[in-house]
TrEMBL record:
<feature type="transmembrane region" description="Helical">
    <location>
        <begin position="104"/>
        <end position="123"/>
    </location>
</feature>
<feature type="transmembrane region" description="Helical">
    <location>
        <begin position="41"/>
        <end position="60"/>
    </location>
</feature>
<dbReference type="InterPro" id="IPR000515">
    <property type="entry name" value="MetI-like"/>
</dbReference>
<keyword id="KW-0472">Membrane</keyword>
<keyword id="KW-1003">Cell membrane</keyword>
<dbReference type="Pfam" id="PF00528">
    <property type="entry name" value="BPD_transp_1"/>
</dbReference>
<dbReference type="InterPro" id="IPR035906">
    <property type="entry name" value="MetI-like_sf"/>
</dbReference>
<keyword id="KW-0812">Transmembrane</keyword>
<feature type="transmembrane region" description="Helical">
    <location>
        <begin position="203"/>
        <end position="234"/>
    </location>
</feature>
<dbReference type="GO" id="GO:0005886">
    <property type="term" value="C:plasma membrane"/>
</dbReference>
<feature type="transmembrane region" description="Helical">
    <location>
        <begin position="135"/>
        <end position="155"/>
    </location>
</feature>
<feature type="domain" description="ABC transmembrane type-1">
    <location>
        <begin position="97"/>
        <end position="277"/>
    </location>
</feature>
<protein>
    <submittedName>
        <fullName>NitT/TauT family transport system permease protein</fullName>
    </submittedName>
</protein>
<keyword id="KW-0813">Transport</keyword>
<feature type="transmembrane region" description="Helical">
    <location>
        <begin position="161"/>
        <end position="182"/>
    </location>
</feature>
<dbReference type="GO" id="GO:0042918">
    <property type="term" value="P:alkanesulfonate transmembrane transport"/>
</dbReference>
<feature type="transmembrane region" description="Helical">
    <location>
        <begin position="254"/>
        <end position="277"/>
    </location>
</feature>
C-alpha cells in the first residue's frame, strides 16, 4: 500500500496489481500453420469412426460374440480383405463396377435434366402446377423397385429396364426439390428485376435459376443416394452383371466375405458420386457464404 497526497490530505491507495502470469504452453497443434492444421483435421477426423468400426468389427467376429446379434457367422475383416484382394485381381470386378457406374450416371443424368426442367415449369406456371402436380404426387409414393416386373415386360433388355428404374427413383427428389426451390424464392427479386427491365428469358437465367440452384442441388444429392439403392436392388433382381448382381451372387454361393466386399464397393461408389454432386454444387453456388467449405 502506498500514500499519495491530494488537496484533502493523505489518502491511502492501493498499488496496481501485477498482471497474472500465464503458464507457457507449447503444443504441437500450435506449432503447425493454420492451413496445415485444417487439412490434417480434415484427413484424420474421418478416419476415427472408421478405425473404431474396424476394431469393434474385429473384436466381435474374432471372439464370436452371440448376444442380441450373432457375430459368429460374420466374416472377419481379415477374410474380407483377402476376398477384396482376390476380387481386385480379376477383370470381372472392374466390369461390374463400370456397369453399375454407367447405369447410375445415365439414369441420374436423365432424371436431373427432366426433373429440373419439369420442376421449373411447375414452379413457374400455375396451369402446369394444377395439371401436373396431382399426377406427380400420385406416382411419387410408388417404390421404384416395384416396377421391376413391368420393366421386364416393357423393355427388350434388362439393361434398359435398370436404367429406367434408376431414372424413376432419382426423378422425384429432383422435381420436388426444384418446385420447392421455385416457391421459396423471394418475390422482391423478381419484382426488382422486372423494374430494371429484365425480360422473361433473362429473368429466368439470371435471377430465378441461380437463386433456386442451392435447393436444386440439395435434391440432386438426395436423388443420387436413392438412385444407388434402386440400381443395386434392380441388379440383384434382374441384372446379369453389376456390383449389385455380384453381391447377390456371392450370397447365393455362401461367400459372405464377397458379400461384404460388394457392400463396401457400393459404399465407395456412392461416396464418390455424392462427392462429385456436392463438388459441382459448390462450384456452381460459389456465391454462397459457406460454399468455400
Amino acid at each position: 500500500m502506498t500514500l499519495t497526497l491530494n488537496d484533502v490530505g493523505a489518502v491511502p491507495t492501493r498499488a496496481p496489481a501485477a498482471p497474472p502470469r500465464t503458464p507457457l504452453r507449447v503444443t504441437l497443434a500450435g506449432l503447425l500453420p493454420a492451413r496445415l492444421r485444417t487439412r490434417t483435421a480434415a484427413f484424420v477426423l474421418p478416419l476415427l469412426p472408421i478405425a473404431g468400426f474396424l476394431v469393434l468389427w474385429h473384436l466381435l467376429t474374432d471372439y464370436g460374440v452371440v448376444a442380441w446379434l450373432r457375430f459368429n457367422r460374420m466374416p472377419t475383416p481379415a477374410s474380407v480383405l483377402d476376398a477384396f484382394i482376390a476380387r481386385v485381381g480379376s477383370g470381372s470386378y472392374y466390369d461390374d463396377l463400370f456397369a453399375s457406374l454407367q447405369r447410375i450416371l445415365l439414369g441420374f443424368g436423365l432424371a436431373a435434366v427432366v426433373g429440373v426442367a419439369l420442376g421449373i415449369l411447375v414452379g413457374r406456371s400455375e396451369v402446369a402446377r394444377m395439371t401436373l402436380r396431382p399426377f406427380i404426387e400420385i406416382i411419387r409414393p410408388i417404390p421404384a423397385i416395384a416396377l421391376v416386373p413391368l420393366t421386364i415386360l416393357l423393355f427388350p433388355s434388362s439393361e434398359q429396364g435398370i436404367v429406367f428404374i434408376t431414372f424413376f427413383a432419382a426423378f422425384f427428389p429432383v422435381v420436388v426439390s426444384t418446385i420447392h426451390a421455385m416457391d421459396s424464392l423471394p418475390k422482391v427479386w423478381e419484382e426488382a428485376a422486372k423494374t430494371m427491365g429484365a425480360g422473361r428469358v433473362s429473368l429466368l437465367f439470371q435471377v430465378i435459376l441461380p437463386g433456386a440452384l442451392p435447393g436444386i442441388f440439395a435434391g440432386l444429392s438426395v436423388a443420387m443416394g436413392v438412385a444407388w439403392i434402386c440400381v443395386v436392388s434392380a441388379e440383384m433382381i434382374s441384372g446379369q452383371f453389376g456390383i449389385g448382381y455380384y453381391t447377390w451372387q456371392s450370397y447365393g454361393l455362401l461367400d459372405y466375405a464377397g458379400v461384404v466386399v460388394g457392400m463396401l464397393s457400393i459404399g465407395a461408389l456412392g461416396l464418390g458420386t455424392a462427392w462429385l454432386v456436392e463438388y459441382v454444387g459448390r462450384r456452381v453456388n460459389r456465391w454462397l457464404p459457406r460454399a468455400a467449405r
